[in-house]
Design goal:
By secondary structure, the chain is mostly helical. The protein has 15 helices and four strands. Helix 1 crosses helix 11.
């Protein structure tokens, strides 16, 4: 699908990708509002409709890795890397601060009440390194440091010989196999110094980035179908292993979520390889609008949404309406964050590159005229 750009220009942006991105965020919101909310706060009534699968956030990491491959060739590596920072970081920092003050303004007895030291730890993204000391203000934020590390690794690899050809394939296979080999250590209460490193760098999530890169390579015919299928199957196996948790009764699997992520990976691969999806214009505009605010919605919906659930329950509102209210609140807050922070901050932080590009264009035109 092509959409009109500035000055009448056309964009080759596929509505299918907007649908994937929007769908992933909706799945995250449904899981948090109907399942995780009751698990974390048992005093909340069970939802009339429950979506118990942890799938959306993992697939968003796959999509991020795919688009890192698509965009990394556009301009210099510094511009690419700084563009990712400018897109992710300001909204994240603003979301942490907003959520912090909302949780303090509307405290609920027995729930987490963030202190100034919690705000500092969350702004520094310290949760993965020391989760017992640094609780999340909003649990949805766990993907942000992994994306920042992933984009940084992508830029460094692309600038080196290890980011191309057979060496890149070696990196991808190692990134999946190494976490699988060390998984028995991680799951059996390892020493704290080991856990800090392994969890801090998100080793048990590397397979999601590999899946995204593999999908891109397959979509542009840089990876054969048998090789792609084998690598993707290994990523799916790594997701199943990741979803095991140790309980007093032994290891507990979350196979339903693993299967959902595996299906999602296949859908993303199909979208990458297929023509764009035809869609009525009105629906296409709605999907594109929501996809455009999806990052802000992802950042803002959970912690504040749980307060919405509890306040509405306290006044006797049914669980369906509670869930809808959490979804609407998250969408509105995401729209506000996108309009007020994400877009202006990205434009401001990218201004040195855009001004340099404009100056270069003017110089080229002037030279041509002479």
């Amino acid at each position: 699908m092509t959409t009109a750009g500035s000055g009448g220009a056309k964009s080759r942006r596929k509505i299918s990708w907007d649908l994937v991105r929007a769908g992933c965020v909706v799945l995250v919101m449904l899981y948090h509002s109907t399942s995780l909310s009751v698990f974390l706060h048992p005093e909340l009534e069970p939802r009339a409709v429950e979506f118990p699968y942890q799938v959306g956030a993992s697939l968003l990491l796959v999509v991020s890795a795919y688009f890192a491959c698509v965009t990394i060739r556009r301009g210099t590596m510094l511009r690419y890397w700084w563009g990712r920072i400018a897109r992710l970081l300001p909204s994240f920092l603003a979301a942490v601060v907003i959520s912090y003050f909302v949780l303090r303004a509307f405290p609920i007895e027995g729930w987490f009440f963030p202190l100034p030291e919690d705000l500092r730890a969350n702004l520094l993204m310290l949760w993965h390194w020391k989760p017992q000391d640094y609780p999340f203000i909003d649990g949805s934020h766990w993907t942000v440091p992994l994306q920042l590390m992933g984009f940084t690794a992508a830029a460094l690899l692309y600038k080196s010989s290890w980011g191309h050809g057979r060496r890149m394939l070696i990196i991808m296979w190692v990134a999946v196999i190494l976490p699988l080999l060390q998984w028995p250590i991680r799951i059996n209460d390892p020493v704290e110094s080991y856990r800090v490193v392994v969890d801090g760098i998100g080793m048990h999530r590397w397979h999601l980035f590999v899946a995204g890169v593999a999908i891109w390579m397959w979509s542009v015919n840089r990876l054969s179908t048998p090789h792609f299928a084998t690598l993707l199957a290994l990523c799916m196996a790594a997701q199943e292993v990741h979803n095991y948790t140790r309980t007093p009764e032994g290891l507990l699997a979350d196979t339903g979520s693993s299967v959902a992520v595996a299906i999602g990976m296949c859908v993303i691969a199909l979208v990458a390889r297929s023509p764009d999806l035809p869609m009525p214009p009105l629906l296409a505009r709605a999907v594109t609008w929501f996809a455009g605010i999806s990052y802000g919605t992802f950042l803002m919906h959970q912690a504040i949404g749980y307060i919405v659930l509890r306040k509405l329950q306290d006044v006797g509102v049914d669980t369906i309406t509670q869930t809808l209210a959490m979804l609407v609140t998250g969408t509105l807050l995401g729209w506000m964050l996108t309009r007020v922070v994400e877009k202006p901050a990205h434009e401001l932080l990218m201004r040195p590159f855009t001004q340099r590009g404009s100056a270069h264009t003017r110089e080229t035109k002037a030279t041509g005229q002479r």
